[in-house]
Every structure is written in C-alpha cells, then in structure tokens.
Amino acid sequence: MKERKKIGVLVLSYGTPESLDQIEEYYTHIRHGRPPTPEQLEELKARYEAIVGGFFPLRRNTDKQVEGLQETLKREHADVDYVCYQGLKHARPYIEDGVEQMAKDGIREAVGVVLAPHYSTMSVGAYTKRAKETADKLGIAMTFVNEYHLHPKLLQALSERVEASLAAFPGGTARGDIRVIFSAHSLPEKILELGDPYQQQLLETAKAVADKAGVTNWQFAWQSAGQTATPWLGPDILDVLRTIRNEENVTSVLMCPIGFVSDHLEVLYDIDIECKSLAAELGMRLERTESLNTDPLYMETLSDVVHRQARSSGWV
C-alpha cells in the first residue's frame, strides 16, 4: 500500500490572550515590545471583561477552527496526510513556534493559510513573511494561500447569514428599508499608495454577497481603527451610523463584518457593545450576522484552498 504524502498546514491568525493575566504581554507584543501605559492596559482589560466576564472563549474559537479544518481535510482529502499547526501573530504559539513544531515533527513541505479571506501586505503579507523566513531557516518548503475572498462556499456562507438575519427583523419591517453595512478592520491609509488590494477585495466580497442575497440597500464601513497619528481607512462605522440616522432617517441596520471569520474582540465589543449602544441612543435597531466560526462551508473553503495550493506546488 502506497504511503500517504505528509504535508503540514500552518493556520495563521492574529491571536488573542487566553486569560486576563496575559493581556499585558499580548498588548506589549502588539506594541513591538513597548509596554502599554496603565491607562491603555486598563482600557483593553475593560473591553475583554465586558464581553467575557473574566472567561476567555475567544482563543477557543480559533482552536476550534484549526480542529475543524483538520477534520475537513481528513474527510475531503483522505489520500493526503495533512497535519494542521497553529501560528499566531501576537500570542503563543507564535508563528515561529508553529513552524518549529513542524520541523520537529519531520514536516518538509507545508501550506500556510491565514484565517482572513482578504490580502493585505500589512496583515496576510506580514504573517506569511514571518512564516517563510522561519521555514527557510529550518529547511521546510512552504507555500501560501494569499486570498480566498471570492470562493463560492465562502460567499454562500456569508449570503446565507445575511438572508437569515434579514428575515429575523420584526414583521412589518420592509426588507428594502434595512441598511446592510459590510465592515472590516481598518488599516492605515498608506496601504492605498502601495497599491494594496485589501480595500478592493473587501468591496468585491461585499458586492458578491449582496448580489447573492438579493440586497440592494447596502454600503461599506470600516471599524476598529488603531489609535495612531497616521490616518486610517474610513469612514468609521460609528460615524456611518450617525450619518445614516441623521441624514437619511435609517432606523434598521444589519451589520455584516465580512473581514472577520470568528467571534473576537472586534465583533463582540466593537459591534455588539459599541455599535449597538450608539444605535440604541440614535433610536435604531441594529442586528449582526453570525460569525463564520466553524461553519462547514467555511471549513470546506479552507480545505479546498489548502489542497489547491499543495496541488499547484506539485506535492499532491
């Protein structure tokens, strides 16, 4: 019997602390080794406490996605021995840790995939650069999935969520009166000067999902911008809510954060607490589509792009 080809799969993501006592280390890593001020640390802790009450399910969301991908690869591509590893940008196991574990396990060929469908040099590009540098040092041939923002199964999963959420609005709410706002994490505006595809890919996903769900009343907004001196992509979602309420008298809003694939701080706090609080002040009803998390369609999307990447490298 022919032995199955063994290929590593490095699943990359931003990372999150596993408990409150890890927040300072996490925040310091984000700030390139500069510890946060006591005020900054307390503000971030307060955000986590507001959504989790001291218990951290956020890291588990990512762990489950890695487990879900492993199971899906095993089911859909049983002729290949895919072995999944996790690599986080700002928490343990760091990206380098994941690659080093591959090397210890004898992996010589690997595919990297980021839990973010849209490519940016500042996000996906930064993850893959770190992984490639470590893989090269350790003698692992590593190739990467750069984006999958228009994968049919991803679009299906997102459009099904939009349709289900629209149907959940109270009876008497005309579907055409509900403003659907697609959102993603803002990045510094300087990426536009570099010809970065991030903004364009997000708009392509938003349009494709809207078309598939039959939505015509939609727009795009940015969220969760960093507090830096340089300008970030806008308009910000909070400003958008004020504008559409005051200038267009929109009272029903559905948020679809297509830039995020699981329930993390930017979804559970920035949307579920901040946006909903502002919407209530403005007299608006605001709902949010469910995150993808381990939706089978999303797991199948990842499985497909990983296998395609391995095949294009001539490994399977």
Automatic annotation (TrEMBL):
Signal peptide location: none
Residues reported in the UniProt entry to bind Fe-coproporphyrin III: Y14, R31, R47, Y48, Y127
InterPro entries in the record: Ferrochelatase, Ferrochelatase_AS, Ferrochelatase_C, Ferrochelatase_N
Keywords linked to the UniProt accession: Cytoplasm, Heme biosynthesis, Iron, Lyase, Metal-binding, Porphyrin biosynthesis
Binding site for Fe(2+): H185, E266
EC numbers, comma separated: 4.99.1.9
Domain of life: Bacteria
Chief location: cytoplasm
UniProt subcellular location: Cytoplasm
Catalysed reaction, written as an equation: Fe-coproporphyrin III + 2 H(+) = coproporphyrin III + Fe(2+)
Keyword Lyase: yes
Pathway recorded for this protein: Porphyrin-containing compound metabolism; protoheme biosynthesis
CDD domains reported for this sequence: Ferrochelatase_C, Ferrochelatase_N
One Pfam entry name: Ferrochelatase
Family: Belongs to the ferrochelatase family.
HAMAP family in the record: Ferrochelatase
Role: Involved in coproporphyrin-dependent heme b biosynthesis. Catalyzes the insertion of ferrous iron into coproporphyrin III to form Fe-coproporphyrin III.
Protein name: Coproporphyrin III ferrochelatase
Organism listed in the record: Paenibacillus chartarius
